[in-house]
């Protein structure tokens, strides 16, 4: 009977399909089991390799720890040393500041003493070499009397010492003779000579002009030299001025007494107020000072 035959064939087909599915699942389980075993073996191998690496490098790592510990101690010691150095440096800086102030004070005292020993000295510039002869003090006394006038002195000026400066002697033909350093016996005589020299104007001996100056220390001379340009411009405008110890320029302008200790400030004032843009005296600039 045909219907029964079809059912039988359908049942055989279902049984065969179930058998194939079971076999496929069994194969897949087997493959997975093999993969897990392989993975476990790989993990085991990696773990063994890590353990082996640790064992092989344990001594090296311990050595590195020791070295780092030593370097750490050294860094700590260096930090302590630097802290101590900072303290000592601060102490040295404070001491240096104190010594610098003390040195400045001592320099001022030395400069004062040096200039005090020169308080009775004058410097005469422009006297030709070899004109003084062997008796220099007598030569200077006669020079001052002849040039400044015998009536200007109650008695001949007393000269304690007179000599040329210690600069090298000029060669023949050199028209720049060494200046005279003259020590007078009285400070008042020195002041009188300088005042008479300013009043009489240009002084000359044997046809050559010479000049009298206070004999100051090199530091003071350097300060006074800074006013050279200001003095030149005041001369050009016929303004009388005075350069007072140690280095103070004074003159009268427009009825006002001006005093300058800074050469730059003096020159700026003269350029802006005493001299016009063309280099000529400004209005009222020709007023004379003391």
Automatic annotation (TrEMBL):
It comes from Scophthalmus maximus (Turbot). Transmembrane segments: none annotated. It comes from the Eukaryota. Residues 1-25 have a biased composition (Polar residues). InterPro entries: Transposase_22 (IPR004244). This is Transposase element L1Md-A101/L1Md-A102/L1Md-A2. The lineage of its organism: Eukaryota, Metazoa, Chordata, Craniata, Vertebrata. PANTHER family: L1 TRANSPOSABLE ELEMENT-RELATED. Residues 1-30, 154-177 are annotated as: Disordered. Residues 154-163 have a biased composition (Basic and acidic residues).
